[in-house]
Design brief:
Blueprint lengths: L1 H27 L5 H24 L1 H6 L2 H8 L14 E4 L4 E5 L6 E6 L23 H4 L5
Helix pairs in contact: 2-4
Length: 145
């Protein structure tokens, strides 16, 4: 009976996370307040760590995924870690760099490399930088290359 319960919980976990993500998506999509962005900047380090570790453990698979798929695959067992980013585009590189962009994927909100303490390209209100990776991981994180 305990095995059934554990199996049921494993099956329900992604559904519950998706429900949480959907409920947050509508409310969070337009929220680009400085408080929310600072909170997400702090959380991005954990995402970067998960992406980097996934890439080390699964190098061929990681290389075959695009930046959005890489984040989703690296966090597929912990979808709740992505829930606070609901309504935003979250991209990752195998080096552990995370780029967070507006819902339409046109404007970069902030970018962070896992190997540094503070956000490397922090949120700036009313910025118009394209949603493209700008950080050079080789310069920032030589040990992860």
């Amino acid at each position: 009976m305990a095995n059934l319960s554990n199996k049921a919980m494993r099956l329900m976990r992604p559904m519950l996370a998706a429900l949480l993500l959907c409920s947050c998506t509508a409310a969070c999509a337009e929220d680009q307040s400085e408080d929310r962005m600072r909170n997400l900047e702090n959380r991005a380090s954990l995402l970067g760590l998960r992406v980097y570790q996934f890439s080390v453990d699964n190098p061929e698979l990681a290389q075959s995924l695009d930046a959005r798929q890489l984040v989703r695959k690296a966090l597929e067992t912990e979808p709740e870690k992505l829930a606070p980013f609901g309504g935003l585009v979250v991209l990752g590189k195998t080096s552990g760099v995370i780029l967070v962009c507006t819902q339409d994927g046109k404007v970069a909100l902030f970018e962070d490399a896992v190997c540094t303490k503070n956000p490397d390209d922090p949120f700036v209100k009313d910025r118009q930088r394209p949603c493209d990776f700008m950080l050079e991981p080789k310069a920032l994180c030589p040990a992860t290359q």
